[in-house]
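@channel anyone free to eyeball this complex?
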Amino acid sequence: MTEKREPIPFSGTHSSDDLNLYGAYQMLLPIWVEGEPAYVPENNSVLRCLQYLELKENSVRMDWGRYCWNNTKGCCEMEYRADAAGESIVGRACQVQATSGLEILQLPRGGRKHAR
Ligand code: FES
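replying in thread with the prediction:
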């Protein structure tokens, strides 16, 4: 059972790299990564959010050379659900938009949580 968390406003400034990668996000959305709580920028795919978590939080490690980023190879399939009450679904992390409460049940192949 995962507790409900709310989005939080982003109060910092965006670097040009941040803008290029994640856009001018204003909110950070609560998600779960294999049971661990995380916050990720709104209006981004799950794969992009995993990049954010690796670069900004050091909380995941992804084998970036595996991923095509363009929905052609199925290389980023993950198991997830929209929220704690949702059904488990297999989807492509480069296509699924991260939403508040989303739970990644199993990371794409080549991904793992990273102990901080
Ligand atoms: S990154 Fe290749 S299908 Fe998503």
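from a first look: The first helix runs from residue 16 to 22.
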